[in-house]
Amino acid sequence: MNERDCEINTMHGYQVDVYEESEDFYDISYDADDPILRYYDWRNVYGSCVLPCLHQISHYVMQFIIANMIFCLGSKIRARYMSSKHSITHLLSIGCGCYLLYNTVEYGLWYWFLLFFSAYLLFKVSHIVEQWFGFEFVISGYCILYLVTCEIVEKNANVWHHIRGILMIAVMKIISLAIDIRVKRHIKEQFSILGFLGYVCCPANCIFGPWSSFGEYLPEPCPR
Q1: Is the residue at 46 inside a domain?
Q2: Is residue 7 included in any domain, yes or no?
C-alpha cells in the first residue's frame, strides 16, 4: 500500500468516525427515570400550563358575560318601564361595548373609532342630500379601501392582526345598515348617532361576532 492509499484510508476513517460521532450526538435516548423528566408530570403541567391558560381566558370571558348581562337586564327593565326611551338601550349598548373594547383590545383601537366616525359622516351626508340609492356600494367601497389602507399604513403586524377581526365585524355591520336603510323606511326614520354607535358597539357581537343586522339589534320592531 503506497502512501497515497494510506492517506485516503485515513481520511475515510476520519469521515466515518465523524459521522458515527454525529450519529451518537443526535441519537439521544431519553430515560424515563431522569429526574428532569420526572419533574414534568401531569401535576406540574396542570399547574404551570393549564391553570394559567384558564385564568387568562376566564379574565376575558367573565368581562364578556358581565357586560352582556348588564346590557340584557338594562334593556329588559327599559322595555318594561320606559318602552318609548330607546336611547337608554343605545346608551347601555355603547357603554358596555366600549368597556369590552377598551379592556380586550390592547393596540390599535383608534382604527375602530376612526372607521366609526368616518362611516357615520358618510351616512349623514347621504341623508342630507337624500341620495340613498346606490349608497351601499359607496359605503362598501369605502370600507374595503379603509381596511386596505390601514393594513398598508400599520407597520406592526401584531397590532394589525390584533385589531382586524373587530374591524371586519364593524365593516359588515356598516354595510348591512346601508342596505337596510335603503330598503326599510322605518330604519331610515330611526337612524341616529346613538342608534348607529349602539348597533356597532353592541356587546353581544362587537368582539367575537357573529354579525347581526340592525333590525335584530333594535329593542323591538318599530312601527312603520
Answers
A1: yes
A2: no
